[in-house]
Automatic annotation (TrEMBL):
Organism placement in taxonomy: Eukaryota, Viridiplantae, Streptophyta, Embryophyta, Tracheophyta
Signal sequence region: none
Protein name: RecA DNA recombination family protein
UniProtKB keywords: ATP-binding, DNA damage, DNA recombination, DNA-binding, Nucleotide-binding
PROSITE patterns: RECA_1, RECA_2, RECA_3
Alphabetized PANTHER family for the sequence: MITOCHONDRIAL DNA REPAIR PROTEIN RECA HOMOLOG-RELATED, RECA
Domain RecA family profile: 113-271, 276-335
One of the Pfam families matching this protein, by short name: RecA_N
Molecular function GO labels: ATP binding; ATP-dependent DNA damage sensor activity; single-stranded DNA binding
The keyword Nucleotide-binding is assigned to this record: yes
Stored InterPro entries: AAA+_ATPase (IPR003593), DNA_recomb/repair_RecA (IPR013765), DNA_recomb/repair_RecA_CS (IPR020584), P-loop_NTPase (IPR027417), RecA-like_N (IPR049428), RecA_ATP-bd (IPR020588), RecA_monomer-monomer_interface (IPR020587)
An individual GO BP term: DNA recombination
Length: 343
C-alpha cells in the first residue's frame, strides 16, 4: 500500500471505503501535507451528494400504491363497499328501464362459454373449436360447385337430429328434396321459404328468428337476394348499392335477435371478381361488406379435385377444402379437407 494512503488512514480513523456508487477519483490538488479525507470529502461527501444518494435509495410513496400494485379490495380501499353498492344500484336501474338481463355479470348469466353444435363434419368441428356457434352469424362462401349448399344441409341435418327446428330460405329456387334426404335431412319437417325478393326473404327469416322456435336458418344465397326495386325496374337499369344497403339494414336487426333467441344464421355467398384489378386478390363476395363484420365465423370452401371411381372412368364425388377465414369463437386460419361422394 502507498505510504501516503497509510498515513491518511492513520490521521483520519473515521475514513470509510468509497461506495461502489461513486468511482474513485483522485484529487488534482493532492499533496502529502493535506489530509486524505479532507480532499475526497469535498468531492464525494458534500451535502448535495449525500442528499442525492439518499434520494435514490428511498421509495416514492403514493396514496394510489394499493390500486397500482394490487386489485381493489375492502382492506385496500375503504370506499370499496360504497362503490359496489353504487354499481348494483346502477345495474338495477338499467334493468328496470330496459328489461331484466339488459346488464348482468357474465359469470352469473352463464355465458362464459359459447354453445356450439356439430356441422356434420368431424374435422371441421375440430377446426372450429367444437362446431358452429349458436346464436351467431355464419358466412360460407366460395366458387360455384364447391359444396356450399351441401355443407349447409349437413348442418341442418345435425340440428334436426338434436330435436331442433331448421329453416331454409331458398332464394335461388333450386332446392332438391331428394338430394337433401340422401344427406340425412328430414325434408318432411324442414321449413322452406322461396321468397319473391330480398326484402321478403330477410323479413321472413327475421320473424322466424324472433319467434324463438327455430334453431337454424340458412339463406341460400346472398347473391340471389334481389331487392324489390331491382325486380320492379327494367332490365339494364343501374341500381347501385341496393343489395348492400339491404344486407346492412337487415343484419343490424337480425344479429341481435339471433343472439337473444339462440338461433344460428347461415348465409351462403358467392364470389365475384373486381374489374380492372391487376395486383392483389380480385375476388370479392357479393352483398357488400356488412356480412363480413357481423359474421362470427367465415368459412371459405373450394374444390380440391374430383373423386374417381375404382375404374377411374367416372367422377363419383368431390373433394372440398374448407378454411376458417374468420372466427370470433376459436383460432382462425385452420383448414380441413373432406370428401363427398354423390353415389
Amino acid at each position: 500500500m502507498d505510504s501516503q494512503l497509510v498515513l491518511s488512514l492513520k490521521l483520519n480513523p473515521s475514513f470509510t471505503p468509497l461506495s461502489p456508487l461513486f468511482p474513485f477519483t483522485p484529487c488534482s490538488s493532492f499533496s502529502p501535507s493535506l489530509r486524505f479525507s479532507s480532499c475526497y470529502s469535498r468531492r464525494l461527501y458534500s451535502p448535495v451528494t449525500v442528499y442525492a444518494a439518499k434520494k435514490l435509495s428511498h421509495k416514492i410513496s403514493s396514496e394510489f400504491d394499493d390500486r397500482i400494485n394490487g386489485a381493489l379490495s375492502p382492506d385496500a380501499d375503504s370506499r370499496f363497499l360504497d362503490r359496489q353498492k353504487a354499481l348494483e344500484a346502477a345495474m338495477n336501474d338499467i334493468n328496470s328501464s330496459f328489461g331484466k338481463g339488459s346488464v348482468t355479470r357474465l359469470g352469473s348469466a352463464g355465458g362464459a362459454l359459447v354453445e356450439t353444435f356439430s356441422s356434420g363434419i368431424l374435422t371441421l368441428d375440430l377446426a372450429l373449436g367444437g362446431g358452429l356457434p349458436k346464436g351467431r352469424v355464419v358466412e360460407i362462401y366460395g366458387p360455384e360447385s364447391s359444396g356450399k349448399t351441401t355443407l349447409a344441409l349437413h348442418a341442418i341435418a345435425e340440428v334436426q337430429k338434436l330435436g331442433g327446428n331448421a329453416m331454409l330460405v331458398d332464394a335461388e329456387h333450386a332446392f332438391d328434396p331428394a338430394y337433401s334426404k340422401a344427406l340425412g335431412v328430414d325434408v318432411e319437417n324442414l321449413i322452406v321459404c322461396q321468397p319473391d325478393n330480398g326484402e321478403m326473404a330477410l323479413e321472413t327469416a327475421d320473424r322466424m328468428c324472433r319467434s324463438g322456435a327455430v334453431d337454424l336458418i340458412c339463406v341460400d344465397s346472398v347473391s340471389a337476394l334481389t331487392p324489390r326495386a331491382e325486380i320492379e325496374g327494367e332490365i339494364g337499369m343501374q341500381q347501385m348499392g341496393l343489395q348492400a344497403r339491404l344486407m346492412s339494414q337487415a343484419l343490424r336487426k337480425m344479429s341481435g335477435n339471433a343472439s337473444k333467441a339462440g338461433c344460428t344464421l347461415i348465409f351462403l355467398n358467392q364470389i365475384r371478381y373486381k374489374i380492372g384489378v391487376y395486383y392483389g386478390n380480385p375476388e370479392v363476395t357479393s352483398g357488400g361488406i356488412a356480412l363480413k363484420f357481423f359474421a362470427s365465423v367465415r368459412l371459405e370452401i373450394r374444390s380440391a379435385g374430383k373423386i374417381k371411381s375404382s375404374k377411374g372412368d367416372e367422377d363419383i364425388g368431390l373433394r372440398a377444402r374448407v378454411r376458417v377465414q374468420k372466427s370470433k369463437v376459436s383460432r382462425p386460419y385452420k383448414q380441413e379437407e373432406r370428401k363427398h361422394c354423390s353415389t
